[in-house]
Amino acid sequence: MKNKLILLGWAVLAWFGASKSCVAANESVNRDVLKKEKLWSPGGYIERQSELGALRFGKSFTMAYGGCGLIALYNALVALGQEPSYDDFLGLATDLQCRGVAWFGKYGIHPSALRRWLKKHDYSVKRLGVTEESFAQNEENYKVFIVTVLNGTGLRNWVHTVCITRVEAGFVVHNGPYEEAFCTLAEAIKNSSRQGATAIYAMGVSKQ
């Protein structure tokens, strides 16, 4: 019930998004930044959200603050075999700020907006249960997961959305606090926050 209430409240906040003029101004600024600075290798994973503080996001925030959902989607596309460019990243940012950003960007992007984007662009997406049993049942069915977690045991640290990939060594959390692979999907999800994370929304993603 707590998860449903969090997601419902978050969905309400998503009604208060960024204006078209704000999104356009952000794209112009961000394009200039990415012309001058190489913040990550285009086509490679974004592993350090904290390094994106020069990129605007929402009304008055930065991607270092509220861009984890965007980064998770970008990383999922990388894992699915694309080599997205900076232009592709900016296009994703524009799409998601227009449809899914919550409370002018303060509370990031609702995970349902990521799911809608993927389905619209012809990816196969399955929403998973958020129990260890569900993770165990599905961890071999997908190589790419997008998971939104609650940091710690309360709302004080809000939420974080990550891309998790299945590799030969286990499960790797991208844009998470640890670099090693974990043995199970459930273990990877738990370690997507230093405070110990609990999943509130999860999906498996694949190409159609």
Detailed description of the structure:
There is one protein chain. The chain has helices spanning 2-13, 20-36, 63-66, 68-79, 86-98, 111-120, 132-138, 185-190; strands at residues 56-57, 61-62, 123-128, 144-151, 159-167, 170-174, 197-207. A five-stranded antiparallel sheet has the order 3-7-4-5-6, with helices on both faces. A two-stranded antiparallel sheet has the order 1-2. The protein is built from eight helices and seven strands, in the order ααββααααβαβββαβ. The longest helix has 17 residues, at 20-36. Strand 1 and strand 2 form a beta hairpin. The chain has 208 residues and is an alpha+beta fold. Helix 2 (20-36) runs antiparallel to helix 5 (86-98). The model has no long low-confidence stretch (mean pLDDT 88).
Helices and strands in order, then pairings?
Layout: H1 2-13, H2 20-36, E1 56-57, E2 61-62, H3 63-66, H4 68-79, H5 86-98, H6 111-120, E3 123-128, H7 132-138, E4 144-151, E5 159-167, E6 170-174, H8 185-190, E7 197-207
